[in-house]
Structure prediction request, 460 residues.
Amino acid sequence: MSRFLGSSITKKITMALLGLFLILFLPVHLGINFLLLKSDPEPFNKAAHFMATFWLIKGFEVLLLASFLLHIFYGIFLQIQNWLARGKQYKITNYSQTSFFSKFMIWTGLIIFIFLIIHFMNFYFIKIGWVQGDPENFYGVAHQLFKIPAYIILYIFSFLILGFHLAHAFWSAFQTLGWNTTVLSLVFKGLGTLFAILIPLGFTIIPLVIFFTK
Amino acid sequence: MNITLKIWRQKNEHAKGKFVTYKLDDVSKEMTFLEMLDYLNEKLIKEGNDPVAFDSDCREGICGMCGLYINGRPNGPKKGVTACQLSMSVFKDGDTITVEPWRAKAFPVIKDLIVNRNAFDKIIQVGGYISVTTGSAPEANSIPVKKENAERAFDSGICIGCGACVAACKNASAMLFIGAKVSQLALLPQGRVEAKERVKTMVAKMDELGFGNCSNTGACEAECPKEIKLTNIARLNREFYKANLS
Prediction:
């Protein structure tokens, strides 16, 4: 059993499962974020309050945070192993045959992590009392942030990077889980591309609409 | 045509090694890449210099010995060929060609362009076979094999173990090689008997030898001279968790 748990494939499968679990959260978050487009703050604040207080969601939140940390830990651990496995570097490398987004997973992951810390400082840390602010008015906090051009640029950039990460991650997770035949590969690649476009697009439209219309 | 070669020269496993530049005139476009290296070596020997050490055997793209990293890609710019099958016609007059050995911690350089690929042998030794009672060959049709499975097993079985997948992968992962070896046996009834133990031991050995982890970049499939598919890695993963969880 220890050989199974310590194996590189087990680590990869764990990363894939955690990644898919994290991906599931994105449409839910996006759905709630769309409430920011309403002029009435109540629906968004109510949804945020529900997410912050309902016991099932709170349990889910712990699971989500643990998944994030484990996904990041395994990502870094496997990446270091990968760097060490090459040994001496090639003088000339032509990675034209390597899928584009797969080359930068550790770096896109790092940028997403930095964005998450900023995001946590703006919202989650207020909720748990680490940062001063009104946890019952996240609508107001978000609208204030979406009036700052520099923040909007950072926000859009971060979601563009998330799209790059997802463009490889979605299909790659299914490949790691072994769900890959010639046909399935095309299906998951197509779905992954669609997901990697639609989710960041949805998230980035919201601050732009708020900035230009409100 | 005239070409410039930048070749990795290293006396032995422990020597430092460096790139040495050679100018070569009158290279024929009809030559293969290895014939061009033979031509260079003849010149070096005539001049009293040490010839460039490189691996080769069949020179027909079957044995998997002649792996070379040419201009940043395993076996050069042409898809689906080994270095011995690479024609010099893909290069132009005046080109500079950089030739390096496979780079992977698990494949140490022995001399110049020759690497030690015993790591692959060690992986095969722990499970890449079927145990059979020796004797006369059994009747071929006594064990029915589904045609589709026979074809898939054959597609996996054509892996020549050259190591181009490891060389191409940015992580120096050997998953395509092991995926092909596990698949070719897992797809056939004779191989199913030891399938669980095989996948466990081969993966454990791969990890022990210091190969990197697969991050599904697809470079191995694209650069494999035998065009082994990534579906073999998916099957390897399936076989691995089925063997451990059932």
Observations:
- Chain B has a mean pLDDT of 95.
- The domain at 3-110 of chain B is CATH 3.10.20.30 (Ubiquitin-like (UB roll)).
- The beta strands of chain B are 3-9, 18-24, 69-70, 73-74, 96-100, 109-111, 114-115.
